[in-house]
Amino acid sequence: MPSGGLICTCRDIVARKQAEQVLRRTLEDQIRTNEEREGAIRALEATQRELMEKIATIERQRSALREMSVPILELWNDVLTLPVVGIIDSQRAADMTERLLDRIGERRTRGVILDLTGVDVVDTMTAAHLVKLSQAASLLGSFCVLTGIGPQVAQTLTLMGVDLGGLTTARSLRDGLRICLTRLGRA
Question: Choosing a second label site near 55 at 20 to 30 A (CA), which of 4, 28, 44, 93?
Fold first, then answer.
């Protein structure tokens, strides 16, 4: 065999070995890159699960806060009371209406006391909401008594010329309960 053929074969073998090493390193790099990507994907999926759990927790807390911000109490047989505390914005007004009407429908309640003892400021929107709430309750066969109107709230309502639409008012929760029981024939 001529010596030139052996040199070419050796060069071919060396070149092939070098190419195999380059391919092996490239393959190892690709495997490492894929493993890193898979790890990153797993980390992102875990983060997404955590975020979804946090969102669910926040929604449960928001729902619980809504429930607590609109407590509806059965004060007497066939008499519910909705103690209103703080400021009534449009979302809270909608929650109040929905929850109270649902409760009236569930219990077939006839008397409802809207107690404003915990309200320091009433604006026209709040007053309008209370009138609409009373009207909606009357459509379900219930009557409403508004209690706990303080001097500042009374003065504000008077200065604004707010018409409470014939809504019965009472000085205190006790007086409101007395009115309800009288109207229900239980006094």
Answer: 93
How far is Cα 108 from Cα 141, in angstroms, rounded to an integer?
8
- Total number of domains in the chain: 2
List the domain range (segments joined by +) for residue 156: 73-183
Alpha carbon distance 111, 109 (integer Å): 6
Conformation bin of residue 86: beta by default, left when phi > 0, alpha when psi is -120 to 50: left
Average pLDDT, the chain: 88
Amino acid, res. 26:
T
What are the C-alpha distances in Å from 1 to residues 11, 21, 40, 61?
16, 29, 57, 88
In eight-state DSSP terms, residue 2 is -
* pTM of model > 0.85: no
138 contacts 149 by C-beta, under 8 angstroms: no
The percent helix, strand, coil of the chain (3-state, each to 5) is 65, 15, 20
Q: Are residues 87 and 16 in the same domain?
A: no
Query: pLDDT tens for residues 108-132?
Result: 999 999 999 988 888 888 888 888 9
